[in-house]
Amino acid sequence: MYSFNGNNSVLGAACGKPFPVSAIAILDGGKSDVLNLKAN
After folding, report:
1. Which of 5, 7, 24, 38 is deepest in the core (most CB within 10 A)?
2. Does 37 reside within a domain?
3. Residue 12 domain flag
């Protein structure tokens, strides 16, 4: 699990959404290294 330090509006914007987002799930990391982020 990775904790985002911003609020849900900022997380929504980071995901490209015009609304607040509470949680996201990475179903396929593809070629990115997003799954290698710091674990809590």
Report:
1. 24
2. no
3. yes
| pLDDT tens digits for range 22-33 | 999 888 878 878
Q: Quick: pLDDT tens for 1-40.
A: 778 889 999 999 999 999 999 999 888 878 878 777 766 5
* Domain count along the chain: 1
- Do residues 5 and 18 touch, judged by C-beta distance below 8 A? no
Secondary structure, 3-state, 18-30: CCCCCCCCCCCCC
Q: Can you give the residue range of the structural domain that contains 20?
A: 1-30
Give percent helix, percent strand, percent coil of the chain, each to the nearest 5.
25, 0, 75
